[in-house]
Structure formats: C-alpha cells, structure tokens
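Researcher: Here's the sequence for the chain we discussed earlier.
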Amino acid sequence: MAVLTAAKSLLGVSSSVGGKPLKRCSGFWIDWDEESKTGTVLTTAHLIRTKEAPTNIWSGGEEYDPHANVTVHLLDGTSAEGQLLYHQPHYDVAFVRVRVDKPVQLPSFNEEVKLVQDVFRLGRDNMLDLRITYGRAVSENPDTCQRYHDMCFHCAGVPNNEEKYDGGGPVIDLEGKVVGMSNVRCTRTFIPSSILLKCLDLWKKYEYKYIPRPHLGMTFEAIKLLEPAHVDKIWRMYNIDNGLVVQKVSKGSHAEKFGIQIGDIIECCNGESVSTTVKLENMLMSICKGSSDNLNGLNVEVNVSVEVFHTLKKLRTVGELAADVSDHGEVIIA
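Model: Thanks. This is the structure I predict for it:
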C-alpha cells in the first residue's frame, strides 16, 4: 500500500527550550550518509517557533530559537538528539541532522501536484502512531495567514485541533510519492513539492547556508481563482482574464517606486505569464537557482522583468523591478 511505504520515511520530531517542551510535529527523511551514519530530516520551521505573528503572516513578528534542543523520534521507539542545520522562515522549512546507524528509507517525489488531485496527509502523533488523512489538493488565493506558495488541502470531518502533529509530515499522491509537506502555520495548507525541491536545490547550491528568495514587496490574488463575477468584471473593464491582482504594496519598496499600486495586474514575469501565486513563487526561486553569483551573503538585489497593467491609468508598462534577496520571512509594511 502506498501509504505504508511512504510511512517508512516518516518520523516524529520535538523541541524544547530550557528543559521545557516547545513543539511536537512530524518530519521525513531526505538524505542519509553512509560514511558518517547520519540522516537529514525535513520538517517545518514551526518546530523552533517561539512566537507567532501577532496579526498576519505578512506583518512580521514571528520569532524562532535556533538554539532549541531538537529530538528525533525514530520508528523503533528510540529517540536521538538532533542538530538543527538550518531553518527558512518564509518557506517554513527546517533541516535536522541525526545520527542513525542503519540506512533509512528515502521517499520518492512527484515534482507536480495537480488540481483536485487525491492525496493523503501523513503524520505521527506523540505515540508515533501513524495519522492518515484523505483529501484533495486545491489552489485558492491565500489569506492573511498564508504565504503565496501554499496550496490547500481539502478534507472533511477532521477537527483542526487533531491536525497539530501533522505539520512537517508529507502529503503524498496515490502512488506514495511526496507532492508536498503539511504546513502548521495555517491549517489545511501544504507546501507543494515544486517549492520543496527548489528549496533543497538552493540549500545545496549555496553550500547548506541559506535559501535565498527575491522579495517583491507585494501580495497578490490570482485572477483565475477569484469569484466568476469578479473575473468577468476584470475582463469587461480591462480585457484581461489572467494574471495576478496586487493586493498590497509595501511602503518604501522597489514596487512602490516602480509605480505599482493596489489593484494593478502583474501579467508576466521574466517574459512568462503568471496565472497563480505558486507559479510566481517557482519563477522567483528559479532566478536564484540560475544565478551564477554567490549572492554575497544575501546582500544583493536582483532584477525581475515585469509586465504590469496599471488599472487606474489603463496603461501597460514593461520594466525591470529590483528585488531584495533575503532568507527571512517577507514583511509587507502598510
């Protein structure tokens, strides 16, 4: 059975600070080194989060303790001390190294998750019992507690308080391949595999030090995911039925200086049409992945070619938008 095969790579992970329990979640193997007898676990950065954002995820305020004690709960019932290698707040991922004498089973990935695809969300509770939740992968415009690379997991009849252990666990397809990782920040969302795989590639590219990301200073909603009446209105007014509608522009950002305002429509990035925020995020990550620069410790800017329709002026412009590169969670200043 696909679920049981995938479950062999699924672990429990917990953290503590000053001897006091902090978080308990799930994680799964992504690497094992035979020479050093160590394995690497991918999990959620929620593992070491000590403070949640006070208002919404884009306002900032989250805090993490990179010195928290991490314990990996192995499938044979034993526990081992883990070493936190790195955490990336924006993508909500963390990597933990742990010594394990025997080879571990690594999961297979499916690089693409399809809309309305049948999937299973897996997790392990505090007794290491396997938790299996059936649902479907759905694209929706993000709310204030979601980053715009998140996808939604639609399921029925599961109370939110029973999902707390699933964060960091894999979301798999019916063949048992990983199509995402469950997100704790916002219930019933997950990070799609296309983003996870790029995170892994970038972490390796930049010598396991950081995962860079260009910050555009804006939030968006995809036209195709709006209510049909709203989509029709945009088409009637501007003859546009695809792209991203700007919801917020950060004060003092490059986007504001570019002249982008709330309600404007981003039609293309780097010459490619952008139909969803997940597609935009993949494009942004590809910019860093394709860069030959070491990003000088992240203190650089990259240029993103954008095609913008300014709705108030009913004017279309194409230009180079500067974006600050960082591995912190992006904050939008009102």
